[in-house]
């Protein structure tokens, strides 16, 4: 029987931050984060995750240094503002809480989300 690998907390935090709107880049061994999302990120939620990324920096650097996957086209179903209910999959009929409109999740994601920088590099 194959043993399951325990997920790395730093990489898990990185992926969660990416889902809520953070983009990460590398400048040498410095990890930089930039927030691309509506409004302000919740500090109470974000700070512990950013700290987990800092605490597991070697693993996060290795993860981010892997060859990038081809860029994919995002749809409304990938957006955190697309709400759907019941048996509908994320690609199905739902409501965009950002634009307050109904749409299919397969629709191309909008580019009207505000962009915002964080305080600087994660290498505090």
What can be said about this structure in brief?
The protein is of the alpha+beta class and 124 residues long.
Number of helices: 3
Residue stretches low in confidence (pLDDT < 50, at least 5 long) are 113-121
Count the E strands.
Answer: 6
Helical fraction equals: 25-40%
Oligomeric state as shown: single chain
Side by side, the strands of the main sheet go 1-2-6
Overall description:
The chain is 27% helix and 23% strand. With 124 residues, the chain is of the alpha+beta class. The protein folds into two domains: 9-70, no CATH class; 72-115, no CATH class. The chain has a three-stranded antiparallel β-sheet with strand order 1-2-6. Strand 1 (22-27) and strand 2 (30-35) form a beta hairpin. Helix 1 (9-20) runs antiparallel to helix 2 (43-55). It is elongated and about 40 Å long.
Summary keywords:
124 residues; 23% strand; 3-stranded antiparallel beta sheet; alpha+beta; 6 strands; 3 helices
Task: Show the helix and strand layout.
Layout: H1 9-20, E1 22-27, E2 30-35, H2 43-55, H3 57-65, E3 82-83, E4 93-96, E5 101-104, E6 116-121
Antiparallel strand pairs: 1-2, 2-6, 3-4, 4-5
Helix pairs in contact: 1-2
